[in-house]
Amino acid sequence: MKRFLYILCSSFFLISGALAEPWAGTLEQIRKEAAGVFSVRAEFTQEKHMKMLAKPLISTGVVLFKSPKSIRWEYFKPVQSILMMDDGRVKRFIEGEAGLVEDLGPGKEIMQFVLQEITYWLKGRFDDSPNFTTTLQSGRTITLTPKEESFSRMIERIELRLSDQPGVMESVKIIENQDTYTEYTFQNTQVNIPLDDVLFRKI
Asked: What are the tens digits of pLDDT across the range 9-52?
């Protein structure tokens, strides 16, 4: 569940930064500017920090989004996995002995819920979500706080920082508690580029 929440939150932050104009000063401005985003591709590095770890766990991958509700979130290292939603239909593939195989186990409802939330946020409508309280602060910083106790037990808060360069995110930090957090950085972001539908249907 936590892994899917990280994907959900990080995808939103990526698209929120993918705006055609300089950093927006209000949530309404972000909503209007995000309406012009129909596709995004970005590479990411994920660092998992825990008190028990001498150094963070590092993963790398790529995320693709195509409006209105197609998403591909793919990890390359250290273990390959792909979570895809094609026009609302969700599939997950994980690396096994024979390569990537579809995960047919339980948890599809959770994935469906998470990716549905992503579609709200990718359109700049994150303040429509019933699950988070949104605070837009100075210094290009946004903080999300879970409303429900079930969420707050997993995530204390989420902090994101928009880059000085329009269309590029600087960092996202998902804080579970004072000893555990996951941080994402995005590189080589491309906005409104052609993305073939097959990318959201096949591995």
From this structure: 565 556 555 544 444 567 777 677 777 788 889 899 999 999 99
Q: Domain holding 43: CATH number?
A: 2.50.20.10
Is residue 14 a part of any domain in this protein?
yes
The CA–CA distances, whole Å, from 40 to 100, 103, 122, 123, 141 equal 24, 26, 10, 12, 21
Q: Is 200 left (phi over 0), alpha (psi -120 to 50) or beta?
A: alpha
Q: Name the residue type at position 179.
A: D
For residue 120, what are the contacts with CB-CB under 8 A and spacing of at least 6?
126, 128, 129
Cα diameter, the chain: 49
Whole domain around residue 100: which residue ranges?
A: 2-193
Burial class (CB in 10 A: 0-12, 13-18, 19+), 164: exposed
pLDDT at 139 over 80: no
Cα separation, 41 vs 142, in Å, equals: 22
State the DSSP code for 127.
G
Instruction: Say yes or no to pLDDT of 181 above 60.
Output: yes
When divided into structural domains, the chain yields a total of 1
200 in a structural domain: no
Indicate whether 106 belongs to any domain: yes
**pTM (2 d.p.):** 0.80
Whether 75 is covered by a domain: the verdict is: yes
